[in-house]
Amino acid sequence: MNAMRRRRGVLILAGLLAAGWLAWTAARPTVAAAALILDLTGQQKTLRAWLPIRAQAVTSRDFDVPARHGAIHVRLFEPAAPTGGTIAIFPGVHGGGVEEPRMNALSRQFAANGMRVLIAPLPELRVYTIKPRSTDDVEDVSVWLAAQRDLAPTGRIGLVGVSFAGGLTLVAAGRPSLRDKLDLVAALGTHGDLPRAMAYLCTGVLPNGTAQPVHDYGSVVILLAGLHHFAPPDQIEPLRHAIVTFLDASSNDVTNPAKSAALFAEAKRLGDALPEPAREVMGWVNRRDVKTLGPKLLPYLEELGGAAALSPERSPAAMVPVFLLHGSHDNVIPYTETPNLAAYLASQGNPRVTSLLTPLISHANVEGAAPPFGEVWRLTRFWAAMLSALSAP
Questions:
Q1: CA-based nearest residue to 226, from 240, 210, 244
Q2: Which of 77, 147, 167, 232 is deepest in the core (most CB within 10 A)?
Q3: Residues 222 and 202: beta-carbon distance below 8 Å
């Protein structure tokens, strides 16, 4: 009788342990997502301490990855004990490279929550241009990373594209070389059709006909690609230098205000020294005069952004799980791009598209203010679904 009771007790204990293990397995992505959100926002540090997932120690190292158009300089973040798969993050249009503070913080927080993270700034986007070769670079870095068994033990990785790099990442994910090598593709604040998004940047008018204030940064990036329409050949390089100085200033506006102010002053000085008509063009830039500049760019949008390699909605659709996250008041790439992109992917036969519009992010930044619980829960569920899609190491 005692032996039977002991066996029954062992079976009950085993059942409880198995049930607990299954419950933890199901709950872990949600807990990990909550931990990640709390880490990124810096909110509720007391609550973060109660979560059964501790932030790991993270190391980083820089190296070059071979690619067809030239090596890509990258930074790898590795947790002490990897538990959550491998991702490559492709930042948007920004001059900071691997030193850009926000991408560093994002990558380090992902790694602290158990993932290996490779941040790969694209060379063309670092000089404020959006060209098809950048999509090739995404493809080449992704193929390389998936082949490194010490970094991607399963041979599969996740891709995360930020801002305009998100659209390029989705295009690359639909290419044959990455078939069976991807767990997921996530895009933060990205476009489905580049000329459509560019039209908003020039007019402030959304595709649904409503108006929304627009950030001048985007129209200046478009101008940089089309300088030959606005200045004679001998004025293009001095004008380009002045515009890049302005964009460097704008890129540092949040993370380094003192540097930003100095660069804005330098851009003004460079602009005032230019001959006409370049001086007038730089005046639009320095005054942030989108109302004048935008309409002048409209005739050239298809020429400057119409290549299929730049727009997911003009390219073969990625057939892996896709996660689209967009700020509901984004004034760089309008929020309307995400539902349009999700609809396109679904129409092409991808049934695994998860999208979320949220006020918790602006363009490509997580907001730090204390958010409503309902919005936090929606974002937590989104991240949990994304983390669940990553292959365990």
A1: 240
A2: 167
A3: yes
Closest CA to 165 of 138, 196, 193: 138
Report the chain's mean pLDDT, rounded to a whole number. Answer: 86
DSSP character string of 241-259: HHHHHHHHHHHTTTT-HHH
pLDDT in tens, 80-139: 998 889 999 999 998 888 888 888 888 998 899 899 999 999 999 999 999 999 999 999
Interval 60-75: pLDDT, tens = 999 999 999 999 999 9
CATH 3.40.50.1820 in the chain: give the residue spans.
48-193+311-389
C-alpha distances in Å from residue 341, one per residue of 13, 148, 252, 337: 49, 31, 30, 6
Cα separation values, 253 from 186, 201, 202, 271, Å: 26, 19, 21, 19
The three-class DSSP label of residue 371 is: coil
**How far apart (Å, rounded) are the C-alpha atoms in residues 65 and 255?**
27
Contact 92, 167 (CB under 8 A): no
Considering the segment(s) 48-193+311-389 as one domain, its CATH architecture is 3-Layer(aba) Sandwich (3.40)
Instruction: Give the pLDDT band of residue 55 (cuts 50, 70, 90).
Output: confident
E strand residue ranges, 106-181? 116-119, 157-162
